[in-house]
Every structure is written in C-alpha cells, then in structure tokens.
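pinning this so it doesn't scroll away 📌
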Amino acid sequence: MTLSVKPYSKMAESLISYLLRLIVRNGFDDVIDYFSPRDIKEVSQNRLSPNKIDLLSNDFSNFKEFAQFDHDEINHPIFKRNHIHTPRICPECTIENGILFKSWQIATTIYCKKHNSLLIDTCSHCTIPLIWKEGLLEGKCTNDKCYKPLLPLTPNQELLTLDNNQILDCFTAAYFAENVATTRAISSVESRFDSHLSSLIKGYKLLSRNDAAQSWYAKCNEISSNQECLPSDFKNLSASLLMKLLKCEWPIKSFERNESKNPKEPHLRLIRPTKITLPLKEACKILGYEKCDFKKWFDVELLTISNSALNQHSYLDFSPLFVFLTSTSTAINKSMRFYDLKSIVPTYFIDFTELLVACKQEKVAFNYIPAKDLQDSIFFEVSSVRSFIESHINSVKDEITKVSDVMNLTNMTSEEMSYAIKNKIVSKPRLYKHSPHLKNKDLIRLIKMKNVRQLELNIF
C-alpha cells in the first residue's frame, strides 16, 4: 500500500524521525502498523533500500541525501561505529521542533548544547526505556501506560568535559561493571545496554572513583575465588582486559597498579574446571604468547577453543592447562625455570611452548608453583630436559646449529671446540647468515664425547 501524504524532511532530522512523522500524517496509530520490525531496525540505523526510500519520499534525490548518516568507523577495540540504534532525545528540543535530530544517534553525543541537558533514553516516571514511537515527537514517554511528558535531566558538569574516546571508555567500563569477571570483549556492546545514559554514568564512576573500583575488584575476586593456583598474569583477567581496552588514562589504572603490587601468597590446590576464557587477540596481548603457541597447546588439549579452528574470532579456555598443571605436578630434586635453563639449553633448539607440550606428553617432568607468570611458575627437571633436547636434535639431525649454541649445550670450552675442529671430529664450520654453524649430527657426537669426558682426555 502506497502512502498518500509524504512530508518533506527537515534540516538535521534523522531518518527514523521522518518515518514517525510520516506515520502520524497518514493516520496510523503505530509505526508497526505499516513497517516491519526489520524495516524499523534499518531506519533506526539510518539506512534503507532505494526502493523503499522511493515509496517514502516525494523527492527521491533529496531524500536519499538526507537519509545518509555518518557511519565512520571508530578506532576502538569494542565500538566499531559511532552510532546508537535506540532512542535518545532532548525533551525540550522535540517540543520546540517536533522532530528527532540525527546527531542524537551518535554514540559520543551525550547532551544537548542548546538546553544544557543530557540526552535521555528512559522515562523518569516509569523508568522504562524509550522505544521508537510517535510519542517521542511530542517529548512524551513511549510506554502506553505512562505517556507522561519526559523531563530534562541536568548533567554532572564532569560529564560535559569528556571527549569522544573518554565517553567510549565509559561505555566499555559499564559493560565490565554489568558483567563482573568477564573475559569476553563483545564487539558493539552498546546494543546490549538497556539505558545508555545510566551505563555512561555507571562506567564513569567505575573509572574515576576509587570506591567504585574497589567494590568492582572485590566482586571479581569473590567470583574468581578459585584463582589461588593461577600465575599472577592469569589472575583478574577481567581487570587486565579492561585496562587493555581503555583508550585514555583514568584513576582506576593507578588503583589496578597498586593491586598488582600486593599479590596474595599463592596456595597450590587442584583447580576445578571453571572456564578461564579469553579472546585470542587479547590472550596474545595480556599473556605475551603468539598464536602459534596456542595452536600447539590446543593440539595436545592444554586448552579448548570456541570454534573448530583457531582464528581471530576464537575464544580460548585455559582451564584444561591448569587442571593439568595442578594435577600432574610432582616434587623433583634438580629443576630449573625456563629462563634459567637457557644456560644449558639454548633457545635455538627449544622454546617454552615445546617444553610445555613435552610435559603434557610425559617426556619432561616438572613442578608447578604459582608465581608472577606461567614461565616463572613451572620448574622443569634438568635431566629429562636434557634427554628431550637430545631426542629433539636427533630428529632434526640434517639441520645446522650455531657453534656458540653447540658450546653452550655441551658446556665445551673454546679450546675443546678448536681441538674437535682441528682433528676433524666435526666437519669444518660453515658460515650461515654471517655466523659459523655445525651439522646437528656433529653436535650429537660431541654430546656423547663430552658425557664420557673424551674431549678433555684427548686435550690433556
């Protein structure tokens, strides 16, 4: 059915405002009497297909230009577009002009400069969020049981000083305040708020007031009461993730730094398989590991992922890792952390991820004591690490190794290396990437000779 009356659009009017005026002028009681919920959603986003625009307007070219909306992307981890799909209005402006302005749908527009009042999205009488209905054009509540005039709200002067990034930070903090201890950074979370205004205020309090931050930290710790057996970088992941997402400096950051300076004494106990979930991108940032590391962990079931393949949209659950560490850890005599092992095991041969996978495959024994991070928390048995390294080198014997790494691994002196080369115990080193290298099969021979002190006897 074609609408007969098609009023012209007004300057700075939003597309949804025009649609509401169109419905009223053509005698409909409600916008859903003519438009489907899908059409209303498209209109609220200021986009509509050309054929529908032609049905609505007398002047297609003029209306098409009017319907365009600034959908510029935002450089923010959560908010991708600076646009809100739910009603926010200045009651005084709607009474004066009878329209809804396009700028009110911009997420970072939070108040009316003309009337110095906040844009409201909830009725102060019935506390029910506003919806897209013709009552908005008269500045009235859209709840049929209320329908009272909406009252302007004078803003806190501190809110008026916020720039765009600070406003988006407040919305981000509000999401974490409403989802305590979450480790999921949901894209476009603004669509999940019942009231953007109350969320803005809640987020601002969390970021700017120590009492609100302290209360939020307490709730996070209460929910995550099974974190005693986790390294520090796995504790309070929600707080770490929030700090990473914030674009500006806030008082909560100093509070978070003070919290991290006073860690609680860890007590090792078996962690129950409560999910410890992080998006892949944030896991790489917070924990300092690469995507390839997590791929190896997944292959040996040290973590699970939310989808069938590891990609940028994956969520990683680390609970299997800590179930394994706390249940398999054993007391061993001579053990060393990974970075201490570097003196006898050059990182050229092996990395932390490969050692962790070897532990899962029962090739290396270990002891787990929670510390500041995962590498600092695992003590590897030196003898089993040596055996694993030799086996690893043997499996890649056709490859080549730096002479300096060979000396570190075998604890050879420069005199012993010179003797081995001079007497052709090993092939003459060749330059590779401007550094002398030996074949790995020669390295295996040197390890065996060093173990029985044959090199020392030959020299002396």
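📌 and the second one:
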Amino acid sequence: AFDLNEAGSVWQHLATLISRLREVPMKRNSLLCVMICIVLAAAAHVTAATRDWQTGTLTEVEQEKIREGSTRHTNTEGTAKDRGNKTDYSQNSTTTTMENIETWQVYTIEGEKKVYIAREHLLFPWSKPANVTVGDSVKFAVEKGKLYILDDDGKEHKATVAKVRMKTAQ
C-alpha cells in the first residue's frame, strides 16, 4: 500500500535539497538539469513505493533466443590505375551477414490465485536477468500488462505479461 507520510517526506526532502542547491553558485542551465534529475528520481521512488507487491513462488525460468531476421552489409573498395592513355579500374566487394537474435527471459510465477507467465526483453548482450531462484518465493506486482519482479539483489525488473491463468486447486 502507499504511505502518504513517506511520500510527503520524500517531497519535503526534495524541497530542502532544491533550496540548498540555489545557494550553490552554478550556471542556471546546470542548476535546472540537476533539479530535473532530482525530481525524476524522487518521482521514480514514489512510483516504486506505490506498487501493489504480492508474494508468489517462482516455478520456472527459461531463456529464449529468437531470430528476428538478419542484416546484410556490403563493403566495396575500388582502385584506379593510370596506365598513360588508359586507366584500369578494379573493385573488390565483401559481404557479411549478421543474424539478429533477441534474448528474452521467461518467468513463471505462481501467485495466490493466478499463475503469470511474463517475458523480460534483455536488450543488450551484457543485460542480466533477474537474480531469482526457481522454487523460492519472489515479490512481484502486476500493472497494466507489465509484471515487475523484485529480485534477490533488490533490483526491480520489468517484464511483459504473456499469459495469465487461474491457479488449479490442489
């Protein structure tokens, strides 16, 4: 649940910080950039605090690598040799094809009444999935087709809900 006292406290600290920043000699544009960053960070903190966190069990994790097509690149080098009254032209072409592979981490979380299957898009090769263990409990929140997972390191991960089904009676 959302704690109004906590949000008020965040905004009070923000106002104090901004008033102190005005005392620091700084160019107006730099001060504006710093203030915008602080406001955005505070808004993100308040948003994270407002999530309706649930506790569930992580029942399955799978990493999918999906081919999304390919990119072809051709490099052509040309040379011209002057032979007096004649010019010889030559060229050499090299074509490379790169596969476009997208990586998705798929999480299956069993909540109190529903089972959620969600996919997190790992955008870069160095992107890391949530640090969670299959069979352990996990904190999660569902909002507008997105599933937020709070991993063992306290980091929040956003995944797209792919499937929801009712939990079967046992």
